[in-house]
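BUG-377 | component: ligand-complex export | severity: low

The export step for adenosine-5'-triphosphate jobs runs without errors, but we want the raw record kept on the ticket for reference. Input record follows.
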Amino acid sequence: MSAGLLRNSFKEAASAASFVPTLLDQLPNAIVVFEVETKELVYVNPAAESSLDLSRKSLEGQSLFDLFSDNLPLNRMVEEVRMGGISAQRQELVIHSLPGSIHQESVQAHVVVAMLENPRLMMMEWFPIDQQLRSERDERVTQQVEANKQLMRNLAHEIKNPLGGIRGAAQLLEFELPDKGLYEYTQVIIKESDRLQTLVDRLLAPHRKAHVIESFNVHETLERVRSLVLAEFPHGLRIIRNYDTSLPNMLGDQEQLIQAVLNIAHNAAQALSEEIRSGVAQIEFRTRIARSVTISKQRYKLALDLHVIDNGPGIPEDISERIFFPLVSGREGGSGLGLTLAQTFVQQHQGFIACESRSGYTDFHIQIPYRTQEKVA
Ligand SMILES: Nc1ncnc2c1ncn2[C@@H]1O[C@H](COP(=O)(O)OP(=O)(O)OP(=O)(O)O)[C@@H](O)[C@H]1O
Ligand SMILES: [Mg+2]
């Protein structure tokens, strides 16, 4: 039976069972309805499209089992509901990625499989548990970032105030020194003061600049980052553009977002030194649109989904839980501020930033809601 016919038969069944697809269209949980015999999908709601990262058109007519790549526990659940005449089963399952989908990860989800009133149809509903966990984690992170910000600001001011005095006094002292051989010591004071000044300026950066809120094209932002990174790493590094060109313009502080993505991409390029040497280093900029996302308990209709993925060695394990904390660095000479600043800038746009990393694959994922009003903190 073709997908069109199936859809018609589903519509008949749906109206007979007073089952209203438009209502399901609005539910936040992912729902698919499928034929009991063939397991072919006859209906996919927008939340399922978004969860699977595939369009309704490409999904309808596919088999449920093709979709979830031979997921044995899921097969078992479907069969038990079908054979046992049980009306519904619920279970926590890992849903694997699907062929053709952009998401390559597995998702831990709460899954419900149920018979519908029409005995030819069954439905499957799922809700990623990650989402709930993430929402709780986001909130914790937001509080942490706020505390960090205060601490950094106070600390930076405490250091900044005497710093000018120390440097000035060292310079005066240098004029008075009878022996040029002693300049070495005053120069150490001056150089170290300058280094601290740069650090303090970075610490204060998110607090100092007035936000410039404007409408901008995300890909232009990424292109700027791309050329900056390639200017510094001209050989042996590929930066792949994987753009969804239909993304609408964003409202926000473009300079801040350039800085955030630059810090992330810069880290990736620095981590890729081995791969750059052997000519296989690559960073991917991937943009997509995300629908119905929840960030810090706020629900947004549309969000920018941005991944910066590299094929480097991965985040060193001993710091992987703390990379967004200030002054945490796994790099010789690193000040450990790049990611803290990136996180602050993204959060000032109500977004979140997370990282998944293993050897050969590090993915920094940024989500920023599309705002229609000027509401950047
Ligand atoms: N893509 C990546 N691959 C491997 N390790 C990474 C990657 N991104 C970050 N890291 C690790 O996280 C640490 C923290 O990064 P962060 O940008 O905050 O500080 P930094 O790069 O050390 O110093 P700064 O950016 O302030 O100059 C890095 O030192 C590095 O060890
Ligand atoms: Mg860095």
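Assignee comment: Attached the raw record above. Residues 129-176 form the longest helix (48 residues).
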